[in-house]
Design brief:
Helix content is 21%, strand content 34%. The protein is α+β, with helices and mostly antiparallel strands. Helix 1 (25-36) runs parallel beside helix 6.
Length: 305
Amino acid sequence: MARRRSSGRKISGILLLDKPVGITSNAALQKIKRLYKAGKAGHTGNLDPLASGLLPICLGEATKISSFLLDSDKRYLGTCKLGIRTRTADAEGEVVETRPVGELSEHEVNRVLQRFLGEIEQVPPMHSAVKVNGKPLYKLAHQGMEIERKPRRVRIYELKLRRLQGDELDIELSCSKGTYVRTLAEEIGEALGCGAHLSALRRTASGPFGIEDAHTLPEIEHLAEDGLDALDQLLLPTEYAIADWPEVNLSENTAYYLQQGQAVQVPRAPTDGWVRIHRHDGVFLGVGQILEDGRVAPKRLLRTG
């Protein structure tokens, strides 16, 4: 029997990509996967084609913890175009309404922005990847359908005015996962009485990672000319994604049982929540959760061999 050929390299780690405007997150992911000749890859939070910025890409075993980055808080810079509402709430959609902007002061805008701090409800836009009965909303929207969507609770931790000039205002925000910044821009426009849409968006942080450490596609493609070893130097260790979690260290014997899928007792472990697990020699084993009886249960374990 012929042996099954490997579909790619068994390379693991996290690449911080500065996604450019004009391509989908999946297109950027596939380009990185090809450059690295990686067998497995996934991104950690979709950015629309019109958005740029930080897109952490997990390769190999790092895909096992990608969901934790997906659930992490994000930070954005956005530009709201005042006086114009569009069908998609961003610059890609057709204009559905125009209104005069009038004279706005920074004080007035800041007062409106304060209303959106804390926990708010957002209705997912029709042009989004949210699925209803297994179908993404954007596919239904392209068919001319408009269906009822349930509001979602999200949290805005910080919302600052960065620039107010004519019919544009720049905002900076820190928010929970699942926040639609274009919906927020539209709501800000309504609160100001003139309507608005999101004309530009840039993600500057995702979980523990910041845009200042990200690499552009041209930079990565240029480095690829020097070979795979040069590319691999850009990868961050998988555990960096959860570097702010509490850590437990296991003896060789305890690590063996945990890697067999068993919950284990660990002295001086946290009393609840999620933990990152290391073997006594420093090898990162994966993610665990503290059970009610204090034992550490394996949840996402990485291959270490």
